[in-house]
Amino acid sequence: MWYVLLLAGLFEIAWAIGLQYSDGFTKPGPTVATLIALAISMVLLARAVTELPIGTAYAVWTGIGAVGTATLGVVLFDEPATLARAGFVGLIVVGIVGLHLAGGH
């Protein structure tokens, strides 16, 4: 079920990035794509928590989204790529891996 959670996290990144492209939901194409990615992410998360602990699954899901969105913010939107930011994103990755290892199932 971890692969479903990973996929849910990837769709979370997609909808979070889509928020930027939708310009406050004023651009129809990006808005529709964002809402579809959001729905898919939620459905996959709901499926994952049928077999994974909710606390672990939710934390991993949000962690994947945070890491991916922060990384793409640097790549796509010219957000600052500082050593401190990279270090803190790295801490989130450590947390995700730790939760996966300690999550059972």
From TrEMBL:
One GO CC term on file: plasma membrane
The keyword Membrane belongs to this UniProt entry's keyword annotation: yes
Location(s), subcellular: Cell membrane
Record GO terms (molecular function): transmembrane transporter activity
Record keywords, A-Z: Cell membrane, Membrane, Transmembrane, Transmembrane helix, Transport
Superkingdom of the organism of origin: Archaea
Transmembrane segments: 32-50, 57-77, 83-102
The keyword Methyltransferase is assigned to this record: no
InterPro entries noted in UniProt: EmrE-like, Small_drug/metabolite_transptr, Small_multidrug_res
A family per Pfam: Multi_Drug_Res
Annotated membrane topology: Multi-pass membrane protein
Protein name: Small multidrug resistance protein
